[in-house]
Specification:
Layout: H1 4-19, H2 27-34, H3 54-77, H4 97-112, H5 123-133, H6 138-141, H7 156-160, H8 166-178, H9 184-201, H10 206-220, H11 226-229, H12 232-235, H13 241-264, H14 272-275, H15 282-295, H16 300-308, H17 314-329, H18 336-340, H19 345-355
């Protein structure tokens, strides 16, 4: 048992923490301060704690919302036995979009008002969560035009919940994105990010990952999850739901093409953001993180080092690269001394215990 949930969640947080101090720096500044990418270490903050950003905070919000709603659903069905036994997770939970949306809303608003929400969070998330707090419909609260990477930096927990059907995973991945980022590419990239983690946690070989993701994107192009998304496509002004969501998948397919092209003749020492994209938007964050993970052949520590030593949205890139590496390899290669000083390690461990 490789404990993919623990590997994924701690990989995400460690990548986030390593990329936190390099975000907004040039490559020259990063090299001067931290040396070459192969030598990067985990930065300690005041009090010998490794700080993370809103990437990890929001991933925890999603994860804890899902743990709450799936646990409640299984208790209602009488499927719950002793906590931690496999029987708890044997069948898909009977959850509704309304229940998931309500839990996500509550946890997003909790994050919004948390005094530790001071890590340069994205304006889209702040504005949308403030609107959610006012109690309006999420389709009216979301920022329709935004496809920032805040949508998929937090989606990893969706891939880790045992027992979800493929439709539930896809619907929840898109819903949690859509509640703040209403652009179709934010939804598609989040869905594709969750699917990448799910594939890796279930043994997908590195050489098969990009073809599998491409196939999934092509199959999903015109699938609009109306039960989960409601009238979002209409609110966005799309001529029909299929056209709305296909636009997002097509942008993701082009992003996957960039990864494939960059890996044909990779320069492992080149800034990944030059090779693939800066990562500020959803499809680029996914693509550049995939590149960082694959260019080092899935090596866990090298994945987050390569992602953090980049000129773009380095914390989000390294966080996603760490999630991919942790899903594939488990937690064994995350140094215990890193985890010991990691912010939110207790909350991350609680989710890991529930899902592993």
């Amino acid at each position: 048992m490789k404990n993919s949930a623990r590997g994924t969640l701690f990989g995400l947080a460690l990548g986030d923490a390593m990329g936190y101090p390099t975000e907004f720096l040039t490559m020259e500044q990063i090299s001067a301060k931290f040396g070459p990418w192969q030598k990067m270490g985990m930065p300690l903050s005041a009090g010998d704690v490794v700080r993370v950003t809103d990437d990890t905070q929001m991933a925890l919000a999603v994860g804890e919302a899902l743990l709450e709603v799936t646990g409640r659903a299984r208790e209602t069905r009488g499927a719950r036995r002793e906590r931690g036994t496999r029987e708890v997770w044997e069948t898909a939970p009977s959850i509704t979009p309304h229940e998931v949306e309500a839990a996500l809303r509550a946890h997003f608003v909790k994050w919004l008002r948390d005094p530790d929400n001071n890590r340069a969070p994205g304006q889209t998330c702040l504005n949308a969560c403030a609107a959610l707090e006012r109690g309006i419909r999420w389709q009216d609260a979301t920022v329709i035009s935004s496809k920032g990477c805040g949508a998929n930096m937090r989606v990893a927990p969706v891939a880790l919940v045992p027992g979800l059907t493929a439709e539930q995973r896809s619907g929840i991945a898109q819903l949690q994105a859509a509640m703040t980022h209403g652009h179709p590419t934010a939804l598609a990239a989040s869905d594709l990010t969750a699917h990448a983690i799910w594939l890796l946690a279930h043994g997908c070989a590195l050489d098969d990952l990009l073809p599998q993701l491409r196939s999934y994107a092509q199959q999903s192009r015109q699938t609009y999850h109306a039960d989960w998304l409601g009238d979002l496509a209409q609110k966005a002004g799309a001529p029909d739901p299929a056209t709305y969501i296909a636009f997002g998948w097509d942008e993701c397919l082009r992003a996957l093409d960039k990864v494939t092209e960059a890996l044909r003749d990779p320069d492992i020492d080149q800034d990944p953001c030059v090779a693939v994209g800066a990562g500020w938007i959803a499809e680029e964050a996914l693509a550049t993180a995939l590149y960082c993970f694959l260019v080092v052949q899935g090596s866990p520590r090298a994945s987050i080092m390569r992602g953090a030593h980049s000129s773009g949205d380095s914390d989000s890139i390294a966080a996603l690269a760490g999630a991919f590496a942790g899903a594939k390899n488990g937690p064994q290669q995350w140094f215990p001394e890193w985890i010991e000083v990691l912010e939110y390690r207790d909350r991350l461990s609680a989710l890991s215990r529930a899902w592993d």
